[in-house]
Amino acid sequence: MMQDPDQSATSLVRGACPHDCPDTCALLTTVQNGVAIKVQGNPAHAHTDGVLCTKVSRYTERSYHPDRILQPLKRTGPKGSGQFAAVSWDEALTDIAARLQAIAARNPEAIVPYSYAGTMGLVQGESIAARFFHRLGASLLDRTICASAGGEGLVQTLGGKVGMKVEFFAESKLILIWGSNSIGSNLHFWRYVQQAKRDGARLVCIDPRKTETAEKCHAHIALRPGTDAALAFALMHELVRHDWLDHAYLAEHTLGWAALRARALEWPPERAAEVCGVPVEQIRALAQDYGQCFVNGQPAAIRLNYGMQRTRGGGNATRAVVSLPALIGAWRHRAGGVLMSSSGQFPVQRAALQRPDLLAGRQPRTVNMSTIGDALLDPIGPKIEALVVYNSNPVAVAPESGKVVQGFARQDLFTVVLEHFQTDTADYADYILPATTQLEHWDVHSSYGHTDALLNRPAIAPLGQSKPNTQIFRELAARMGFTEDCFNDSDEALCRTAYGDQVDFGALDEHGFATITLPDAPFATGQFPTPSGKCEFWSARLAAQGLDGLPDYLPNYEGAGLSGDYPLAMISPPARNFLNSSFVNVTSLRAIEGEPVLEIHASDAQARGITTGAVVRVFNQRGTYRCKAKVSPRARAGVVNGMGIWWRKLGLDGSNVNQLTSQRLTDLGRAPTFYDCWVDVALDTPVQHATPGIA
Ligand SMILES: Nc1nc2c(c(=O)[nH]1)N[C@H]1C(S)=C(S)[C@@H](COP(=O)(O)OP(=O)(O)OC[C@H]3O[C@@H](n4cnc5c(=O)[nH]c(N)nc54)[C@H](O)[C@@H]3O)O[C@H]1N2
Ligand SMILES: Nc1nc2c(c(=O)[nH]1)N[C@H]1C(S)=C(S)[C@@H](COP(=O)(O)OP(=O)(O)OC[C@H]3O[C@@H](n4cnc5c(=O)[nH]c(N)nc54)[C@H](O)[C@@H]3O)O[C@H]1N2
Ligand code: SF4
Ligand SMILES: [Mo]
């Protein structure tokens, strides 16, 4: 903590942004007389550069929100009605422990933890919580809802969630921004892109939606959702045909080139143009740009993001795209290669934090969070009798909400939700337990968009009766009779455990961040963390599972152009002023987003008599969702964009886009296929707002 020189009651506290965002900014919170009055970016941290996004600049508005849950609540009305009464911590924890104990006595696997990245903190995420569920022998959770298709693609091809260092994009001469709306979702990366652009770099955006990022690039390839692998193969085809290939790099540092080459030759640009729904000239031009970087010895970089892996073939598409840099030897240069996630660069001591040894030989079943609707209604294995939800809002964010809601509404399900707010999920809880925010607790953070570790110190005391997740699970453990010493570890001690001696805690403590030591060009001479040490175009590990050892193009399950009842493809990418479903209840941010909106191309709108501002029904076999139409050049023909994950209860009709998404899983990584979704749209008569006071 830095005190003002005049020793007034004002202080600046160093922290880290906890949100699920690749930027992981370093924060400086101004505290006056115990009250946080301002949250700013830490200018000493290079990636943050003193700048925060609009959402987190208003952080105090979220933490001191009048709707913050500040005491334990017990349900008094029917599930979903949102009726609760305040109870004491003692009453809540005693009752919860008794309920869980009764279930565990029959079968601990009937208890399921449900959590994701509401906070990315390693301590308030899976530390004491994981110890608690391991000790209990509860079901394990497969945390697949965001990134596991792409993650698996990365692991199979490059060997881990590894890639270029983000700062070197500033020196690239060609940047492909692929499946990412960087200005909306990765703002600090965009600063490096602007630097490169000033120095003459060419920028190409590959995205079905004409985003604010696409508008600022030199070229935009608005392909159909889920067709990225076809585009990648056509690029390879052109690289082969023109011999824009780094033969030495291919020979020394890759595995399976002959086979990949043969597959690429099946993809002339004309074929890909047909599949992707883009002009063939665009594909040729992109191949030319990429190939010329090789010819001229200039660095070419790809910023791949998770937006392109939320369709059936997302894992394979990732494998195809992350194979590209090896063809032209882009990895030889520190400003060349690809970055999808940097999270694998951090030496996180997971076993020490999460203590899987507490399972003591038990092997509980694993429940996939992405199919929680089906798991609650029609379980594989023992029926789910209790859910403990923290750091997530599944009723809003999980696919096929109709089934998720039906599952959460089960009378015989006991649900505990640790939260800041009464979210859509909390409405279905038996108990809501008030959790602290990042301003009120300790944590330590990795990043998936840069390679600095960060420390978060509490800036203020917990508001009301709220407690950190860790403390809630400590107290629950005590009531369950778990006496292991590890439940007594303090949050500060857990912060030290997170990286053990792999990161200098003194540096973290002094500056609030510490850079992980890594080579500038990690794969300049191969040394991929794969079994072979090479970039694995062909994966023996996948082949051993009976899967295709090579990447391939797998068409979507659903979507425009496929035969069936629903003629439009729908994607539902993030809204700039929300963070998944977080911040939807912050009035000033919701005011910027306005209302839930469906962007639709003029031709698709005209065919349906739809104009901007009209209330429309968006529907398919899974359900109907009402929102406002916006006829917009941001939408390509045949694809509609349902923007943002609104809280269901703050939407027009008490639902959101996930009413329409399916529980089908991706090819690799068991992940959801949010953007592999067909729908139709029709004009609707205006409806009243479901919730009073939401104008
Ligand atoms: N402001 C804001 N920032 C966020 C988030 C947020 O909700 N709001 N969410 C955070 C989270 S959880 C994550 S995982 C990260 C990354 O989250 P991502 O989901 O990668 O989000 P975006 O960077 O917006 O990129 C998604 C882009 O992919 C495009 N897209 C959709 N389908 C396809 C496809 O098939 N192919 C291609 N090429 N593009 C496609 C969409 O139109 C969109 O512009 O962002 C994080 N940052
Ligand atoms: N249709 C569609 N659906 C999507 C996506 C999409 O693009 N389209 N994106 C998907 C992606 S990429 C992701 S990552 C998921 C995200 O889904 P979630 O991980 O569920 O993210 P959020 O919706 O932000 O909800 C996080 C919740 O955690 C709470 N929280 C934050 N900090 C703490 C804490 O310290 N303690 C406790 N107890 N609670 C805390 C917040 O108040 C918030 O309600 O959604 C997925 N769903
Ligand atoms: S949400 Fe992202 S951009 Fe905004 S402050 Fe947090 S890390 Fe930075
Ligand atoms: Mo995500």
From TrEMBL:
Superkingdom of this protein's organism: Bacteria
Cofactors required: Mo-bis(molybdopterin guanine dinucleotide)
Keywords attached to this entry: Iron, Iron-sulfur, Metal-binding, Molybdenum, Oxidoreductase
UniProt name for this protein: Anaerobic selenocysteine-containing dehydrogenase
InterPro entries: Asp_de-COase-like_dom_sf, MoPterin_dinucl-bd_dom, Mopterin_OxRdtase, Mopterin_OxRdtase_4Fe-4S_dom, Mopterin_OxRdtase_prok_CS, Prok_Mopterin_Oxidored, YoaE_C
One Pfam family per UniProt: Molybdopterin
Domain 4Fe-4S Mo/W bis-MGD-type: start-end pairs: 10-67
Sequence similarity: Belongs to the prokaryotic molybdopterin-containing oxidoreductase family.
CDD domains from the UniProt entry: MopB_3, MopB_CT_3
